[in-house]
Structures are given as structure tokens and as C-alpha cells.
Amino acid sequence: LLRDKEGCERTNVLPQAGIDTPQDVYLECLGILTMLLAKDAQSGLQPVSELASYWIDFLKKNNNSRSLVKRILMTTVYSLSDYGLRTYVLEWINENRPIVYKKNMSEMDTYLCRRVKEAVNVTVKGASEGMRYIKEITSILSKNKFSLELLFPNGFYMVSSYKESISRRVKTRTQGVLFCTSYTISGEMINTKKAVNAATANTIHGIDAAIIYDVIENIPPSIPYSLVHDSIYYRAGDCDVFYEQIRRSYKKIFSTDLLQDFKNQTEIRTGLTLPDVPELGTIDLDEIENAAYIWN
Q1: pTM (2 decimals)?
Q2: Per-residue model confidence as pLDDT tens digits over 92-147
Q3: In terms of Cα–Cα distance, which of 13, 11, 152, 140 is closest to 76?
């Protein structure tokens, strides 16, 4: 979305010169976390150096270290909160650490949460910036009573709308017995908190849907397929057709600056003035067609 070259290579959106195997972004993130810990351990500053040394030793001895960052990295681009990140880290710690009481255990865990967050943000820097921007404009829209609506280059249209719920209660008395039934209806006011929390995930799902929509629009009608969320099922004999079209559709959807398009559309639709979009990186979109593992 922001054409972050390193992020694209780590997630197989772009090929890497001289490397013909799929990249593992979770191991990349774990490696960045390990480097951050090593830097702290060598600093000599206390208690940071001691805490870092403890986690370096812990991760080396644990065969499940990759899973520490996996779920967090997967959900960060869907607007994972700091509370959610801490919850995931503590769940991993509790599953993998022997029950040994240490007086500074809470301090140790908090330190690891901070370093995991830093490692994730470095790994998907472009995605994090894009997420913050989408949430920012959604907050502005919600406060001005507008929903997030996006038109993609291939004509796919997405609406992310969250209205405040209004509770209603119906009382019915029959033969001396009182029955009460509650239900909710959608009001007119925008629920800003829900709208902002859901904006990033809905936008990413919208991009996925726009890509798939473009794929099936350009597949010959004689070829059968089935769709489930962001997955396409097709016959083994049709792999080459989908292989080529999926990459063409990726390139088409990202051929324009989507965030700038969304900003322009929204300003015209609402009359609002929105913040400038984050700066784009520099990648060659033609290279998407050479990415062997962009979709697998």
C-alpha cells in the first residue's frame, strides 16, 4: 500500500535477487527482535541489560520462539491495540515459561512486550504507517458524521459504516403474565470507536476483495472456481491461468497511489480537508509479475 520495498520483499510481494525460496516474515521479525535484545544486553545499562540477557537466553532455549511474533505480526496490520499485543505476549510467555517465581517478573514481561512491539513496527514499517493514516482519516470522518467509503481502480466499492445501536424493549401482557423482549436497532449517529477500530481491517479486506474481484472478472467463463474469503479454489490444471492473472490483478490494483486516491475521493464526497498521505516508497510494480510466492 505504501510501496515499502523491505516489507514487500519480506512478505513475498516482490522477489529478492538471488533468492528462489519463499521468505518467512515471522522469522525475519524474530531476528529483528533478537538484534534489539542483543543491543540492550551489550549496553551495560541496568536493569535493561539484565532483562535483555534473560530473554535472549530464553528464546535460544525455546523451540517455539517464532510463534511469539507470528500472531502479533499477523494482526498488527489489522489495528492490533497495545492491550492486544500485551495479551498475546503474556499468553506466549505463560505457555512456554516454567512456573518459577521471580520478584521482577512483571518488569521482565513488560520489557519484552515493548521490544516485540518495536520489532513488529520495524518489520512492517509501511503497513504500520498506512494503518495509522487510515485510522486518522476514519476518526475525522466519524466525528463529522461520515462513513469510510472507498472506490478501487477496478470499480470495486467498499463501505465501512458503524452506527450507534439503540436498545428497544417490548412489554406484552397476556392472561396476567408479563413478557419482555429486548432488541436493538441501528441509529443515525456514527460509532466513532467501532469505526476507527475496524477501519484498517476493513480496508485491507476491501483491497483483498478488489483483487479477487479483478481476478474473476478476467478469468475465462469456462474455467470453474470457488471463493472463500480471500482464497480461490480451482482445478490443478488451471494453475497457470490463475498464477498469471493474480499477479496482473495485484499490479492493476496497486498501479495508483491508493491512499491518495482515497483521500481525493473522500474530500470531494465530504467537503473536508484531510491530512496528507504518508510518503510512498520506491518499488518497481512490474516486478510483482516475477514474484513466485506472492500468492500460494
Answers
A1: 0.79
A2: 998 888 766 566 788 889 999 999 999 998 888 878 888 889 999 999 999 999 99
A3: 11
Count the alpha carbons within 13 Å of 190 in the hemisphere toward its beta carbon.
20
Q: Which residues contact 231 (CB under 8 A, 6 or more apart)?
A: none
Q: Residue range 241-265: average pLDDT?
A: 92
- Looking at residue 296, what is its pLDDT? 67
Contact yes or no for 2/259 (Cβ under 8 A): yes
Report which residue type is found at 39: K
Confidence of residue 41 (pLDDT cuts 50, 70, 90): very high
